[in-house]
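Structure tokens please, single chain.
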Amino acid sequence: MTTIPAHPVMNFYGFVRMPFDKDFETTEAFASPSLANAVAMLALGVESEDILLVSGPIGSGKSVALRSFIAALDPNRFSPIYLRGLGLSAADLVKSILLALLVEPPFNYAKARALYFKTVAEQPRKPVVVIDDAQDMKESALLSVKNLVNFNSDSKSKITFILCGQPELKETLRYSRLASVHQRIRHWVEFSGLSLKDTCEYIDHAVTRAGRPSPVFSDNAKAEIHKRSLGIPRQINRVCLRTLFEGAAQERTIIDGADVVSDEV
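Here you go.
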């Protein structure tokens, strides 16, 4: 059997896996205060709210929070449905939800809507529709969300939509023509960069998860990484990976502040 050689960076720093990668289980995610708060807020909101909002810059941890939230949902009570917002129309939204609930949607949009309301009302588990990159939905789809949570005079929430997107999503929802949707959002989560303390702990967590018990980055290096990345996790990953490649090439056993390299291409 052919043995695949370990990555040179792994060999040099004694990692058993590459750190700062994007492929990891939700249980391995760094439990930052912002992540814990987001999961807790979503868990509370899904009980009674029709529409929830999650916003923040690219790479700030929104998707990790959604994955953690979905993984923690009680499968006996909730049925999670994950959709991407890119180009999603009102008809696409209704039909995608029906398909996720194992119901073949009619081609006609009006008939699909009627079947949607019947199907959702009869669900033994509450559907939770997570729409990632919701800023890329068509405006008709955003507008339709308000109507899709209305079930006649029944005051009990039968379905929850979680709109997740970049900061412009929050601004878009403030437009007067979307006011009816915006007014239905009573709970929201807003991500920003990690603090310096959390950035340092995030870096240490990633190094430890990669199998190295001792630090690689000095305190000065972690402070410089926070400065360059603004505490955005995806940017932290980029800076750290590039710095590790450079460090291995230069045989630097410990990364100091002056050794941190730019993540710009």
